[in-house]
Amino acid sequence: MISANDLSPAELAALLHFHADAGVEWLLEEEAIDRFAEFEAMKAARRPAATQAQQQQPPAGERQTPPRPNAAARPAPAERAASGPQPAIPDGEAVQQARFVAETARSLAELKTAIEAFNGCNLKHSARSTIFASGDVESGIMVIGSAPSAEDDREGAPFSGKSGQLFDKMLAAIGLTRSTVLLTQVIPWRPPGNRAPSAAEMDICRPFIERQIALAEPKAILLLGNFSARFFFGENDTIHGLRGRWKEIAVADCVIPAIASLHPQDLLTAPVNKRLAWNDLLAFQAKLKSLSLLRN
What we know:
With 296 residues, the chain is an alpha/beta fold. It has a domain at 91-290: Uracil-DNA glycosylase-like domain (Uracil-DNA Glycosylase, subunit E), CATH 3.40.470. It contains 13 helices and 6 strands. It has helices at 9-21, 35-56, 77-83, 91-104, 108-117, 122-126, 150-155, 161-173, 199-216, 226-233, 239-242, 264-269, 274-290, and strands at 134-135, 141-145, 182-185, 220-224, 247-251, 254-261. The longest helix is centred in the first third of the chain and has 22 residues, at 35-56. It starts with 8 loop residues before the first helix and ends in a 6-residue tail after the last helix. The model is unreliable at 71-87 (pLDDT under 50).
């Protein structure tokens, strides 16, 4: 086996990129462990104990059936349930805590700190990073993606990796950059395996994204991806049915115009849909100009 110490920086970087593209995200051990040898050693250690136990058993005719424990000796159902793994906070209580945490934050900086300290959502325990709003909060322009990808989780920023590179090109095409908009995600933590968040996870995370919008006070919002559009529009149609039409999002005391389009990852998977996204971007650009948020 080739040691990492024998590789040049370029070779090591190429190896790490290879593992990342293959889906490897965590290195659990610094040195390889032969699990098969461990298992064989474990079996060998158990054989003498099993032989000794058999020798100590009485003949078949002399064996007695152990008495069955009475009902009083059995653990109560609540005690049996407590002995197994339990969620740290019930979903309903977690939602209430999330609302309290969000409402008490008076700035985006306070909200970021509060979300990073919040432990009521199971998604946080499997994620590496907490993805929060970044960019220009004074721009009046907000772009909201769905949930962090593996690249976002590694980099700690929304729209990272190849989809992020395409996203930068999409912004540049209508005269914007990452530094001139406010970027965030509906869900601050990456769901394991990039699965869709559950209904309970969505309810827990809703106060956080709504508070981000309330504190930022954007004048126009671009939603990217099927999940993001469904989350805010409250509809079950696909992104192809939800995109390209201006709707209104009501958050706190604000009503904000929003338009949905395809996520950059969708465009990498199906490049033929870039023309649809381009039409959505032109509509978003026209709205920004009408609101004096973008120079002509």
